[in-house]
Amino acid sequence: MSMDIIENILFATIRTGTPLLLVALGAMISERSGVLNLGQEGMILVGAVCAFIGAYTTDSLLIGVASGLASGALFSLIFAVIAISLVSSQIATGLALTIFGTGLSAFLGVDYVGLSIDGLDEQPIPLLHSIPLIGKAFFAQDLLVYGAFILFASIYYVMSRTRLGLIIRAVGEAPAVAHSMGYRVILVRYATVMFGGAMAGLGGAYLSLAYTPMWTEGMSAGRGWIALALVVFASWRTERVLIGAWLFAFASILHLVLQGFGYDISPNLLAMLPYLATIIALVMMMQRAGTAQLAPRSLGQPYYPQN
Amino acid sequence: MKAPTLISLGLSAALALSSPLHAAEDPLKVGFVYVSPIGDAGWTYMHDRARKIVDKEFGDRVETTYVESVSEGSDSQRVIRNLSANGHDLIFTTSFGYMNPTLRVARQFPNVRYEHATGYKTAENVGNYQARAYQGRYLAGMAAGAMTETDTIGYVAGFPIPEVLRGINAFTLGVREVNPDASVSVSWINSWHDPAKERESAASLIRQDADVLTMHADSPAVVQAAQDEGVYGIGYNSNMKSYGPDAHLTSVMMHWEPIYQEKIQAVLNDSWEPESIWYGLSEGVVKMAPMHSDIPEAVVERINTHRDALINGDREVFQGPINNQDGEEIVAKGDALKDQQLLEINWYVEGIEGKLPN
């Protein structure tokens, strides 16, 4: 394979990995605070359709991105009220959110099917984008991809280096203890769920504004579920979410590229490759991590405020 | 374009003649069952478009209803039974997976007529209908073959089933008809609807030098990718020009209304029979979107000549000599593939790159 092809594969990998990365980071944050939200797929779709409507009606991609973020956060508020305040089952509420989001996005988007917009363009960063091999992949992408890099770095910093990160983790590990120390468990969980919703909405905006600038129903095609799986495989560690998203994306691009080179491999087998690669790589990483408890201890359990 | 005009002329004459007979009666209730939401510019969109056309044409003699997003399997059986029980006289079930549910319900409602799309089973009161999309694929292939400069054409495809293989083979035969040096690369994505994957697949084909793209999937993402990357694209199901104004060479369009007109008319006339029909260019079920202005006049004329020949029956898409991918002759000169062979096709014609997945 020539340099050129490798460069292109890397470029496509980063693009394909971006929506997964955004959604998985958001899901990870809410899970670190103890809330399992299976509504990712619904939130992505609502974000995607609102981003498209916003961008189409105002002719501004910025407003489109903002609509995606805001609609995702607002939509997740439904989940937060039902699962956190009304203490219903997180699993059932999350599934309901996905089903509701799929229908709601189809309903909102009826008049926008078949319309097209000028999507986000690539913005190569001067000098850096001409670095051989990796320059194009990391420095010749669109603004949302750079945004995902920055969000990743910020989340990594917040979760591992700041007091806020500690509070979120404490709420997820031992909500009662966090409460007795004076932290407002419910408030923290509301915030992380809505942050997760905003990230899923941003992932949706990436799909409908940058990746394939259009709206069609069900355009997320299961990425919300993959993101949820990535969080588990990444054992709730920020850096592993990044590696997992890119690995998954790399394997799915490889599937397309290998076909093109005429390798005689069943496409069904190739289609399995991303899942297989992700599992193997992360199993290896987890083995090295030893037997430490991986999931946040209160994940999925409702918290009843005590006085 | 002649045939459909004739059909609709004949139809309006029939309408004019028969209307007094039915004017005083209750309208014929016709139900449609769709597998996906309507507004997707794809398969279901074209079925619903046809429903609206017949609804308007028959006026108050026919009343149509539809149920969308009905998943194949037991869910569809419930929906079809509901439609049957509440007074529908004719029910169109528009997806392959509705075949057995349709037949099961049909046994319980002998007075209701059923028409199932793309299946192969019939019964006393169940007919089926299909479209020869491959005829349009062949003509689209001619346009692609004429416009490629790299002699490489990309085809993004869902699953390797006969319907898709028929389209790829017909397309390739069209390509080689005008450009024997060109080849078609197929990229399988194992999905009917994943715009992002369709697009990435298109990008990957472009990186391998493809400069004309087409697809057998649901969304217009491939045409959109062609527009962004500055190559040509060919749409499927509906006219996809709006997704790639500069890229769009043509689209293979599926117009179901001639079938719906014919079947509804047959029920109104009491002449309905459970048949298997397979309509194409001749009946106006398969149509081509207007050709791109970049395509040279001579090529457009040649495409039109072939189209007319297909309509008149002067030639078949799968007429010999046809070689398979390994260069062995499968169809001899003077022969053509029979419908049954077309329904079971599971091999690549010469000119397709890569192995057929098994």
TrEMBL record, chain A:
Segments crossing the lipid bilayer: 6-28, 35-56, 62-87, 94-117, 137-159, 187-207, 219-236, 243-263, 269-287
Membrane topology classification: Multi-pass membrane protein
Signal peptide: none
Compartments in which it is found: Cell inner membrane
Keyword vocabulary terms for this entry: Cell membrane, Membrane, Transmembrane, Transmembrane helix
Any one GO MF annotation of this record: transmembrane transporter activity
InterPro entries in alphabetical order: ABC_transp_permease
Any one of the GO CC terms: plasma membrane
PANTHER family: ABC TRANSPORTER PERMEASE PROTEIN, SUGAR ABC TRANSPORTER INTEGRAL MEMBRANE PROTEIN-RELATED
Protein name (Swiss-Prot/TrEMBL): ABC transporter permease
The species this protein was found in: Vreelandella halophila
Source lineage: Bacteria, Pseudomonadati, Pseudomonadota, Gammaproteobacteria, Oceanospirillales
From TrEMBL, chain B:
GO cellular component terms listed in the entry, alphabetical order: plasma membrane
Claim: Signal is one of the keywords in the record: yes
Keywords, ordered alphabetically: Signal
Pfam families given in the database record: Bmp
Signal sequence extent: 1-23
Domain spans labelled ABC transporter substrate-binding protein PnrA-like: 29-303
Protein name: BMP family ABC transporter substrate-binding protein
Organism whose genome encodes this protein: Vreelandella halophila
